[in-house]
Design a protein that fits this description.
By secondary structure, the chain is an alpha/beta fold. The chain contains nine helices and 55 strands. β3, α3 and β4 form a beta-alpha-beta unit.
């Protein structure tokens, strides 16, 4: 009976438990069927409030509808329905581990963060590139309300306020913080260093200032630190700030103004038991000194960038210890000396960039002995002077297969480098100014390379260029400054830039070049022997930016085909045999900056359509047969003009006063025309002739008359300041105020009909090197202030009506050629044979006159007389001032003579001791002998 009751009791328990289980399952399943959402309602509402402030032009948030917010794009929830991750960043600002697919269309609009506190379970927040400027004053307080937050990405969010202090930081779980590309302009706040668990910190592309705080030394967990593109002016690296972070794997401090050396910093890291640093980027700073040997202790280093600094000396031998190093960039420093052979032991090295330094010595096969992984090699020298020489055997086979090589100004020749024979993976090859002579061997063309860049400039290569070269889209070809010959090759349609100038190519440009090379942006064919007319198919080169065909033998008219080349900014067709009018379609080139058509046979007037080219800086139309008036619109509509050369044409009329509006103009050449009228007085107000140019800039090329000869200016054109109005029919007087053109270097007004006197202020032109006022009708004496023109080295005042004595001071002592002054009947004195009337007593109005010399001699006599007259009283006062006092004052006399006796005794004692020592020394030497 008891057993039966026990069995019934156990069975009842099983039934009860089973029914409970079924009930629970029923509730669970029923709940899934009746509830169509799983996220928390308040959190869904917060997300929708956030969405209202966004402009979703591309429908990135189109899935944000319905009640199940956990199924929305970029939202991740926990099992309990709480939002834990929100990833809305643009792909340009995504976190490193973001696995969600994000569209490439950014969200617009402005937003705040008042909705954020509702998402209290949030662990991952990424709002990269979302404009949060409305939350600028409280953004961190809003984030500080999320105690579970582990990763925070707010790059490019328009934030600019970084609180200096916080009463309480509630982000102890934070491991990732990205605040890059905002507008923070303060120092790094101290509260940041209390986040001891932080592993990833990105503050790049702000305007953070001050030093690099020592607080970083407390952040032992930090593995990734990016402080690049800030303003840490004068900051230094040391063991106190970053030199003790043994767990750091990536450190980027590039593009700041950090100074000093890196010895203490690397020494600190070298003391770590196992330094984890893999990537170190210190480029674009002001670091200097020698590279420390302790660099070789950072054995886990894979990427080392020290480019664009001021490092000195050579590469330390310890660099060979970095067996994991894959990329080494020491380019653009002041390093000098030999290249360490130990580099050849870096078997993992893929990229070696040591260009733009001053290496010297010899590179041998040992430098490359173990570089089996090398793909990129750049040893381009900073100077054109060759101080580094390759010395490898003709049958050397490199252990690497390069994709990229740049060996500028390294002596690789005279033979074409045979070691390239097995480099069949090359994509970019630049070996220029390398002393290579002769033709390019056939085996090189048969490597069947598909190149991005082929650059053999500044060698002495001969022979022809085959048509079989293969290039990738938008590739470049540079073979200029060689001795290549033959007709122009039919080149690849993929080329974007072709430079074949300074060779000996002949023949015509292919008539269908526009169809065959549609990607062409730059075509340079100057200084060859090309002829024929320009093909009209150039109209199809829609991407053309520079077109340089100067110094050839092209003929015919310039075709009117320039309407479809909107990006063209440089045209140089100078020194050819073009004829006819300047085409009107050139006026459609809104981007045009340099137009050189000089030294041709062009005729007609300057087309008025050119006034639409408002950005022209160099307008060079000299040495043609252009006629008509100089257009006034040049001064009205082209304010950017720097160089205006209209010399040797047939222009008539007055010089338009509107040219004075060209405030940037610093070269004005109107020589050898038929211009009339006077020189505009406003010319002295043109600021371009008095402005100091601080930065180098390229303004094209031009031929100018300076120092009595034709000179060609190229890269240094921006330094030239010149006015040349010679060989016209100008009349009137020289404008007053020429001294305002304080930076003027050349002033040539010769062969006109100018009258009057030389302006008195002309002597203040301290930079003037050339002054030519010859063959006018100037009168009066040579302006005395001209002796102050200490830079003057070319002067011509011949054939005027000048009179008086020729100055002889300063620079005028060097002007010994009589032709400088000939044709002025009233001038006298050296170097002319005509002597002045009285060289011993000249007119007081003549500069450097004899009367002035006599006055100087009289003055010297008076000075000597006063010297003798004052000497007697001086002696008397000095003698009686001392001796008279001693005679009158007995006590002073006793003290004085006592002092003399004491000094006499001391002197006698000193001399006696010295003589005694000298005698003992001599006696000792005699005894030893």
């Amino acid at each position: 009976m008891a057993d039966a009751r026990a069995s019934i009791w156990c069975f009842s328990i099983i039934i009860i438990l089973s029914s409970e289980f079924v009930y629970l399952e029923t509730v669970k399943l029923g709940s899934c069927q009746t509830q169509d959402f799983s996220c928390i309602a308040t959190e869904r509402k917060a997300l929708l409030n956030f969405k209202e402030g966004l402009t979703d032009t591309w429908g990135r948030l189109s899935s944000w509808r319905g009640k199940d917010c956990c199924s929305w794009a970029s939202v991740v929830c926990s099992e309990l329905g709480h939002v834990t991750k929100l990833k809305l960043s643009s792909p340009y600002w995504s976190d490193p581990d973001d696995a969600l697919e994000v569209t490439s269309y950014p969200l617009g609009g402005k937003n705040d963060l008042r909705w954020l506190s509702t998402l209290s379970h949030l662990k991952h927040l990424n709002l990269g590139n979302v404009d949060l400027s409305m939350a600028n004053t409280y953004w961190f307080q809003a984030v500080n309300m999320l105690p579970s937050l582990e990763e925070l990405y707010l790059p490019a969010c328009g934030l600019s306020i970084l609180l200096r202090s916080l009463p309480l930081a509630n982000l102890s779980s934070l491991s990732v913080l990205d605040l890059s590309s905002n507008g923070f302009s303060s120092s790094i706040p101290s509260w940041l260093f209390n986040m001891s668990g932080l592993e990833y910190l990105d503050l790049n592309s702000n305007d953070l200032r001050g030093g690099i705080p020592d607080g970083f030394a407390r952040m032992d967990s930090l593995r990734y630190l990016d402080l690049s593109k800030n303003s840490f002016t004068g900051a230094k690296l040391s063991t106190r700030n970053l030199g003790s972070l043994c767990n750091l794997q990536v450190l980027d401090l590039s593009i700041n103004d950090i100074v000093g050396d890196i010895g203490e910093f690397t020494s600190g890291l070298s003391r770590c038991n196992n330094c984890s640093l893999e990537s170190l980027h210190l480029g674009y700073n002001q670091l200097g000194g020698f590279l420390p040997d302790s660099l070789g202790s950072l054995r886990n280093l894979k990427n080392l960038r020290l480019d664009k600094n001021n490092f000195l000396g050579s590469i330390p031998e310890s660099i060979s210890n970095l067996s994991s190093l894959q990329s080494l960039d020491l380019s653009e420093n002041g390093m000098k000396g030999t290249i360490a052979r130990s580099l050849g032991q870096l078997s993992s090295l893929v990229s070696l960039d040591i260009k733009d330094n001053q290496w010297e010595g010899v590179i041998t096969e040992a430098h490359f002995s173990n570089l089996t992984s090398l793909k990129e090699l750049s040893i381009a020298q900073i100077s054109m002077n060759i101080t580094l020489r390759f010395n490898v055997t003709p049958n050397w086979i490199p252990p690497f297969k390069l994709r990229y090589t740049d060996l500028k100004s390294c002596l690789v020749g005279p033979e074409f480098p045979a070691w390239l024979r097995n480099q069949n993976e090359l994509q970019r090859i630049a070996i220029w100014n390398a002393g290579i002579k002769g033709s390019i061997p056939e085996w090189f063309w048969k490597l069947d390379l598909v190149l991005d860049v082929l650059d053999f400039r500044f060698n002495q290569l001969t022979g022809t260029v085959p048509n079989s070269l293969k290039f990738t889209p938008l590739a470049t070809l540079y073979l200029d400054y060689n001795n290549l010959t033959g007709p122009l090759p039919v080149l690849s349609s993929n080329l974007s830039a072709v430079s074949l100038d300074h060779n000996m190519f002949f023949g015509q440009i292919s008539h269908d070049i526009g169809e065959k090379m549609p990607m062409l942006t730059d075509l340079h064919l100057s200084y060859n022997s090309l002829n024929g007319s320009l093909p009209s198919s150039i109209r199809y080169l829609n991407s053309l930016t520079t077109f340089v065909i100067s110094d050839n033998q092209f003929t015919g008219k310039i075709p009117d085909i320039w309407n479809n080349t909107p990006y063209l900014y440089l045209i140089d067709m100078s020194n050819n045999r073009f004829s006819g009018n300047i085409p009107d379609s050139l006026g459609s080139l809104a981007a045009l900056k340099i137009l050189r058509l000089s030294r041709n046979n062009l005729s007609g007037e300057i087309p008025p359509t050119l006034q639409k080219c408002t950005t022209i800086e160099n307008l060079d139309l000299g040495d043609n047969r252009l006629s008509g008036d100089i257009p006034a619109w040049i001064g009205e509509n082209i304010p950017s003009l720097l160089v205006l050369n209209l010399q040797s044409n047939l222009f008539t009329g007055d010089i338009p006063r509107q040219l004075c509006n060209l405030s940037l103009l610093h070269i004005l050449d109107l020589e050898e025309n038929s211009l009339t009228g006077s020189i505009p007085r406003c010319i002295v107000k043109m600021r371009g002739f008095s402005t100091i140019i601080k930065n180098m800039r390229y303004e094209g090329q031009v031929w100018l008359v300076a120092k009595g000869t034709d000179l060609f200016y190229d890269a240094d054109l921006f330094l030239v300041n010149s006015i040349n109005l010679a060989s016209n029919n100008l009349s009137g007087v020289l404008p007053e105020g020429l001294e305002n053109l304080s930076r003027l270097g050349t002033l040539n007004l010769s062969m006109n009909h100018l009258t009057g006197k030389i302006p008195p202020g002309i002597g203040r032109l301290q930079w003037l090197e050339t002054l030519d006022l010859s063959r006018n009708q100037l009168s009066g004496m040579i302006e005395p202030s001209m002796v102050s023109m200490t830079s003057l080295n070319h002067l011509n005042l011949s054939f005027n009506n000048l009179s008086g004595k020729i100055p002889t001071a300063n620079q005028f002592q060097t002007f010994t050629d009589p032709s400088i002054y000939e044709g002025n009947n009233g001038l006298c004195g050296q170097p002319l044979p005509t002597k002045c009337k009285d060289d011993d007593a000249e007119s007081p109005n003549s500069p450097g006159s004899g009367n002035q010399a006599n006055e100087d001699e009289d003055g010297d006599d008076h000075q000597m007389l006063w010297f003798y007259l004052s000497m007697g009283p001086g002696i008397a006062v000095g003698f009686w001032g001392v001796c008279g006092t001693l005679i009158v004052k007995k006590s002073w006399r006793r003290v004085y003579f006592q002092f003399v006796d004491d000094m006499k005794e001391r002197l006698m004692t000193f001399v006696s001791l010295k003589l005694a020592r000298l005698r003992r020394s001599m006696n000792k030497k005699e005894t030893q002998a």
